[in-house]
Amino acid sequence: MLENKDIMKEIDINGIEPADETKRQYYYMAKAAKYIKEQEEQAGRKLTYYVQNFGCQMNARDAEKLAGVLEKIGYVEAQDENADFVIYNTCTVRENANLKVYGRLGHLRGIKRKNPFMRIGLCGCMMQESQVVEKIKKSYRHVDLIFGTHNVFKLAELMVTMLEQNQMVIDIWQDTDKIVEDLPTERKYKFKSGINIMFGCNNFCTYCIVPYVRGRERSRKPEDIIREIKTLVADGVVEIMLLGQNVNSYGKNLDEPVSFAKLLEMMEEIEGLERIRFMTSHPKDLSDELIEVMAKSKKICRHLHLPLQSGSSRLLKEMNRRYDKEQYLKLAGKIKSAMPDISLTTDIIIGFPGETEEDFLDTLDVVKKVEFDNAFTFIYSKRTGTPAATYENQVPEDVAKDRFNRLLKEVQEIARKKASVYENTIQQVLVEEVNEQDSALVTGRMSNNLLVHFPGDESMIGTMQEVKLKECKGFYYIGEQA
What we know:
By secondary structure, the protein is α/β, with parallel strands linked by helices.
């Protein structure tokens, strides 16, 4: 790994830019730092940045990378949008996320008029849609920088172009096979971190825009992943969350293929790493090898997120999920047999085009049989550019809402029952923060991802504590130190 603490001092910004992509980006960070220093002198203060994240944990990790580059350039973090550089890292999985971004951009117009040093950047999945970029070019001319999901690593280079040209810069890639290692990140938490093990998706579920905005699957080399984790552990990280659109297909496109299960076994050997989490798993690729590795592991958390989407075999085929109801039930049974203490969570879409009452009852049937510890339930959101957006028989809104409420009631009743089994047991909890509602309490998570609140203070953050679970409150516990 590059010693990025010192690399900036060694760069000659008047020389030729390096051929190596990582060094090349540090070259542009050094160049951008010079421009920002000049602006600081004009402003008579340090310049600030604010990165707002919309969307998934992949986006959250990208936001840490953006923050890392901005800190390296010389910006300091602000607590809100009254900053000198505001970046919105966007999501486009559901229409509501797009509308939020447009609303915030309108708000920024007035702020920017009062601050001659302010720049506005947009990146992420929403920017990969051509109609979105056209709308911004036409209606939001106060935006300075637009880039997508494939070239986050180029932030410093794009900033230099923006600062030199003093006009809107747009750099959208349709796909890439490039993975750039060893760039700076600014982690939100000292004790835990997300790690990208792969990028993109090859599944093309008919309702999903992700493969079109994140590109094809590409996996990082296992040695790069292990090296990064060891560096993080040396810096105080005890829990790692492995990130990918479908972690179960990790390693298939490497020159020397490595299975996801094998990668987990390599991680198991890292001294000082106490917990391993991952998401998201696609049922069609979840192997017996992975179940076996999880069952015998001392570090892999007892939590598996396994999206169902629908319990109807007919709809699953329409969704291009490549499994049916019976295959999902069989897989869930196999997982629970190997790990009786596993917390199984899922995603479910209600109101997919053509969904009948019978289809919905099939979904309810799977929920009752599997007994998920929790489920993230969504009403279908039509996304332009996906096959399902053109399907006929779109489900009326009132019908979808009724089914959604019925499903939610069932999910919550089961989840409460599942959570309550830990009452009066002693569990290991990783403390994450001082409780927001009561500063005399701290909040942490069990291996199965359940939240626990118990008496403590800031010094416990990032430590493992033995906690007696006194009272189940449905989706969390009140406890005390054992």
